[in-house]
Design goal:
Length: about 250
């Protein structure tokens, strides 16, 4: 169960304001707030049905004014699905491979000088998001759309937004969704000038402490090319892998 949750976290997390999740017998389609982020997960169909599934997904997205989606293909997907999708014109996403990771024991303590906790004000939320936008090289359009959603997210979201402070400023951040399996971790990011000093370690520790306080002492995430090495050094164990592909199509 933990492998499936780690490979497809958006299929198990509580829905954020403005988000939608379409459950079908063959796949789960997750749609984020705004207009750009979507992902197809938990594929459960024979490869002979792929063309029909692609058109079904595209039709659902077109109805909502969207013309692209990510496909996240995990270890439990039908064998050969990645190659089949590539053969139909999908392309690897900008970070096309991740490892599904789980932490079930206490991580190291944060180093002196760091403070880490959930953000408590709209101003802290915006400052934390600025770190994330910079770390992930978000486009001006993506930043503008995300910024417009912040007041609603601050009022209504059940997602936890952790931040790490060093010398009075936020240098690392990430979100987490509480579930009965543990905390699902997303979007961990650290400013370039603060990397290698223990900020990400502090972020993981703060998330662990909250997971333990909620009675679910487990952290579940996907590690891409940047985060995977440090997550494994902090004790996360591999339970699966995920390939990310991008499908762009006409409206």
């Amino acid at each position: 169960m933990l492998r499936e949750v780690a490979e497809y976290p958006n299929s198990f997390a509580p829905l954020a304001p403005g988000s939608e999740r379409l459950e079908t017998p063959r796949y789960t389609l997750c749609l984020g707030a705004g207009s750009t982020w979507n992902t197809v997960q938990r594929q459960r169909f024979a490869l002979e049905e792929l063309d029909e599934v692609i058109e079904e997904v595209r039709a659902a997205l077109r109805e909502r004014g969207r013309t692209q989606t990510q496909w996240e293909v995990g270890t439990s997907a039908p064998p050969g699905l990645v190659d089949a999708l590539l053969g139909r014109g999908l392309r690897p996403d900008k970070d096309p491979y991740a490892v599904a990771l789980v932490l079930t024991h206490e991580p190291p303590a944060m180093r002196p000088g760091f403070t880490a906790r959930c953000v408590e004000t709209l101003e802290e939320l915006e400052a934390a998001c600025e770190v994330q936008w910079e770390a992930f090289s978000a486009s001006p359009e993506e930043v503008a759309e995300a910024r417009s959603l912040l007041p609603t997210l601050f009022r209504e979201s059940t997602t936890l937004r952790h931040a790490v402070w060093l010398d009075g400023r936020i240098v690392s951040t990430g979100t987490a969704s509480p579930t009965s399996h543990g905390l699902l971790l997303y979007g961990g990011a650290t400013l370039p000038d603060a990397r290698g000093r223990g900020a990400y370690r502090a972020l993981i520790r703060a998330r662990w402490d909250d997971a333990a306080a909620l009675g679910t002492p487990t952290l579940i995430t996907q590690g891409g090319s940047m985060s995977r090495p440090i997550l494994e050094r902090l004790g996360f164990e591999r339970v699966g892998e995920v390939h990310m592909l991008l499908d762009e199509f006409a409206g």
